[in-house]
Amino acid sequence: MGKEAVPRQTEDIFSQEKLRTSRALLTIGGSKNWRVKVIPNIFPVVSIDNPKAYGYQEVVVETPEYGVEMSSLPESHIADILRAYGARVRALQRDQKIRYILVFKNNGGGAGASIQHAHSQIFASAYVPPHIVVRRKRAQEYRVMNNRDYYSDLLIKEENGPRWIVSGSHVCALTPYASLYNYEAWIMPWRRVDNVSQLSDVEVKEMAKYLKFLLTKVGETGLPYNYYLHQVVGDQFEHLYLRIAPRGDVWAGLELGSRLVVNTVSPEEAATFYRPAANPPPTS
Questions:
Q1: Which of 17, 48, 222, 240 is deepest in the core (most CB within 10 A)?
Q2: 3-class DSSP state for residue 171?
Q3: Whole-angstrom Cα distance, residue 226 to residue 64?
């Protein structure tokens, strides 16, 4: 995606007056005391008026307060943000032309963020990126050959191994094998659902809990980060995961030229880093 499709301004774009008067696609909380608000992106890279780049781009304003990090929000507030994602994904996929939906957050300049007010974005298009097509094809091949879901088998294989972070009742977290990014981590529901709109409320609450834990740990490193979750609309065999991608290393000539990424933090080391935060000791 590169840089975010928003102007390089600071709090002015999300001033209280602009947030109050912007056309809201979704509001969680009261009209005056709202907690999360979704508005159209004023500089979208896709448009329903452009048949060659058909789609929607929306901004999820995560809090009315300026200068607040998402990781500092209460778990209940982060759960509201996830609920906003689900509601908007549910609405966007009603458009029969939409084939791909990406929910993403850029935090910090090194991750492409251009404004400081806590926000994320939802991108929906008629175009499915080629790497998503390849990933989907491989998952389908695995299902045909094994009569099982690849990602469900992944959780079974990885549970309690060196890359495992936490086992919740409804959601788990791990660092993936051959991860691309320093301290990369995935949060996944145990139950196979293909997109965020299908999460139950207990799954949303537990995902919010672990998202807060992991982002707090990323904050300790001082690294910028992205996170994202996506879906191919109509593919009921996907297994949702939220991918946290801290941006510690700069990809240089080797990575750019060969597409062979050198990650200087092993997933096992990353899991060890995260594990104490996701498994706090019992209180006395």
A1: 240
A2: strand
A3: 21
Q: Is the pLDDT of residue 277 over 90?
A: no
> For 221-248, what is the mean pLDDT?
92
Distance between CA atoms of residues 225 and 215, nearest Å: 9
Same domain, 134 and 265: yes
Within 13 Å, how many C-alpha atoms sit on residue 140's CB side? 8
Instruction: Confirm whether 215 is domain-assigned.
Output: yes
Instruction: Take residue 88 and report the two structure tokens written for it.
Output: 């908007």
251 in the same domain as 210: yes
What would the two tokens of residue 84 be? 């906003």
Q: Per the structure, how many domains does the chain have?
A: 2
Owning domain of residue 199: 130-227+234-278
Nearest to 126 by CA among 54, 42, 178, 190: 54
pLDDT for 262: 84
CATH value at residue 22: 3.30.428.10
Last residue of a domain, one of 71, 91, 125: 125
Yes or no: say if 26 and 84 are a contact pair by the CB < 8 Å rule: yes
pLDDT at 8: 39
Q: Would you state the structure tokens that stand for residue 185, as one six-digit string?
A: 């981590």
164, two tokens: 């495992």
Identify the CA nearest to 88 among candidates 111, 57, 46, 65.
57
